[in-house]
Input
Amino acid sequence: MATDLTTDTADAMLAGGHEINKYNFVTKTKGVFRARKGLDADIVAQISEMKDEPGWMRDFRLDALKIFESKPMPNWGGRIGIDFQDIYYYLKPTEGQGRTWEDVPDEIKETFDKLGIPEAERKYLAGVKAQFESEVVYGSLEEDLAKQGVIFTDTDTAVREHSDLLREYFGQIIPATDNKFAALNSAVWSGGSFIYVPPGVKIEFPLQAYFRINAEQMGQFERTLIIVDEGAEVHYVEGCTAPMYSSESLHSAVVEIIVKKNARCRYSTIQNWANNIYNLVTKRALAYENSLMEWIDGNLGSGLTMKYPAVYMMEPGARGEILSIAFSSAGQHQDAGAKVVHCAPNTKSRIISKSISKNGGRSSYRGLCKVEDGAVGSKSSVVCDALILDSKSRSDTYPYIEVEEQDVQVEHEASVSRIGEEQLFYLMSRGLTEAEASSMIVSGFIEPLVKELPMEYAIEMNRLIELQMEGSVG
Amino acid sequence: MTSTLAHTTTGFSQEAFDAFLAARDEPAWLSDMRKSDWTRFLDLPMPSLREEEWMRTDIRLFKFDRFGLPVAPQSVPADITKGALNNGDGHTDMPRTLLADGVNLGGRVSSLDSHPRGCELAPKWADQGVLFGSLDALVAEHGQRLRPYFEQRIVDPAHDKFSALASACWCGGTLLYVPKGVCVDQPFHSFSALSAADGGGGIDLGRTLVILEEGAKATLLSETASTCESGTGLHCGCTELLVGKEARLRYVSLQNWNTKVWHFAHQRAVVGQQGKLQWTIGALGSRLAKVNQRVALTEQDAEAQVNGVMFTQGRQHLCYNTHQHHLAPHCHSDLLYKAALQDHSRSVWRGMIQVDPPAQRTNAYQRNDNLMLSHTARADSIPGLEIEADDVRCTHGSTSGRVDNSLIFYAMSRGYTRQEAIRMIVAGFFQQVFDRISIESVRDALGTAIGQRVREL
Amino acid sequence: MSAFIQAAQETDIPDPGSMLVEVDEHLIVLVHAAGHFYALDDLCTHDGGPLSDGHVDAQQATLACPRHGAQFDLKTGAAKTMPATKATTSHEVKVENGTVFVRLNSR
Output
């Protein structure tokens, strides 16, 4: 049962302070081609054919399908109740990739209007890849970047036009055998971003993308590959939103990143899927000599998220930083965290995780800090703080620390508590209501992460948290 | 006294169990419990490496068929002469104890290869109704009183194959029962030894049951040792501690087998209203140890302090899974495990703090520090929290690192040898946990034992 | 230098194929591939679990971990694919008169 809001209804809800519902709508899509429901070798082959892919990618997909079928479901984390045969794995909405705004079909423009893309385009953002129903339909690349040799396109196009470059890394960081959902993505992936930044090129503004799950029972399987060559720098921002549905929906993405010597890469995500979505994602970066990889991971939505962005520090001097926020409310389980693996000497990592559970929600931190034999002089610090706002909610911490080397410094700390009464009373004595005071304290709690986001995301995050908090008291 | 027992193990067959049972003089209810646990033991498979609890502890080289049930346990000597158990005098086949040295004990009990070797209890405690000594003998004598505690199944026999075996075939065990209001100010000592084997291995199936009734106070020091360095052996045991309302128990358990013994233990304590438990674990020996240590705070204002001191070397693999379970409000638990690792050894510490919804105003802490004394050692630390109440304060922490080179240099510049310097630094590392152990003799014994093990790096 | 210890008979292991053996209290995977024999610790360095039951690729001369697919070089034990990054220990093998011997490398 899809909700269909007219602009009037949307405005009414906005006036009532339910701005979060701005995103809960569906536009009826004509759609050009939709593969039948279900998952088998024929469908996978069909997907490859529709995308006009080279033989090696087709074989890659078919091998991955076999791997997916042979792997068991994970027996940890959240409860996953998916019927894999009851999902559409591919939908191709338009004939080709629009180059400018005018090329894009009206109804899709409507969707993007509501998401605020034209505004974003007007601001100084490099290029915007927007995904609709598994295919990238709108994108434009700043000439400036193109001249510097930066490639920012959708992964489908990259398979055709940058085959050699892509093939060197595709599936090497996260092989199809890695886990069941990586295998699924490897078989049916569609869309996602491909970014290559040549040596020494530093992109000053964030590259962005929007995703949308629209049709009922639709899965989202974007596949992103980012290659930051020596001395280069890039910040990529991923944010997404989805309407409410009564039936399951699956988002199973794979993000692979290579950060070469002296390069820097930051990947920021605000995820705000609706509660009927399973968000099961594998994200991993390999960081080489003296490079820096940063994951900023905000998990606000979905019914179940299982996501542990990882940094493998492969060469001396590599650094990894992961800031993670999980906010779970009624009917939600955020099982999120981070993984850092020290494979070389003098590597450093830092994980800061903040989680909030309210109204019966469950937030779990799950992470790994591994220091391999030979990673002499490595340092790692992990701090997990959790706020549990009421007695219906639940907070878990499952950190795994494996140290195989002597000359290292590894520290881990976690705490779970509720909002401090003293803090609350202080703010209330200053004239704030309990709700406002709680909201302010929670904003302060997540501030280390929010301040790392681009401004419009930071604003959106704070607004969303405020709205969530309003519902939690009184 | 007798000389070293020849090994009379006969495998874990049904015949062996039947013979074992037939030779025991026990109430029928206990035999029935053993029989049903034995069936469980036979039915349960060996744990698999895919299970979370066993994932880091590979026991595929452990073969049950190299061991067997002890046959025809000796009867407990009726005459006990004071001093007969002093550090092995009188029993020339028993190893030295570490914790009993110079301590004014209220009672002692010992066993060798699961056979009770004697016990003594100071009359002033016996007169106050304290029961202490061989569990085997005391359950025969006081069956009706002890039955409810057995039936409580403080340790769950169905947890895995080892808990089932321990429950079905325990022998050579220790009982401490302190009645209401009795405060025992002298510690008790329990000693289990394993002897070497040619061919087969010695087996220790000791079970420890400690019951402190309302307002009771007692201290029990429990230790294990091997008669020689090179024989293999198997310990499969269970420990159950019941701390009643307002009772105070200090329990020390020192595992000091040689480095060939396989050690599987299930341990659980239940602490009642305003009860206090101080539980200290020393883990020095064994080839491979897999220990589940659980504390349940079941009633309001219960408190538990858990101290773990571990030192591993050679190719030892020590896996300690701890659990602090808060079921009631206003309880306090505080766990500190410190491990120093040498050579190619490995420690796995997995700790969970579980706070149930009614357990508001919980204070629960957990910390694990690992000192790596070699670059080939490996420490896995997995602290965990599962919190379902909101008015709580729960924290955990874990650190792993090496001895600070500058400290070694400083000490050496003051005339200490490198080994002495490292010993001092290791002692400093353990100081924080030693400070929490309120029994001086135990602190000293552990400190000395660890100091002796530290080699030059 | 430790001695060569008898581990298995040549005919025990098909080509390609593998077998788990105990050599001097170490668990070793013996692999038979493209006419050669190899010995690796039964240990995947990624998750610490066993490698036995993994797929033997005779052409690539690798043994893959059955759980997450990391491939290890049969001769050197090197980790060739993610998610493993560290080599597992390989041991010397010789075949004499139909018997496979292993000499354990100290780790």
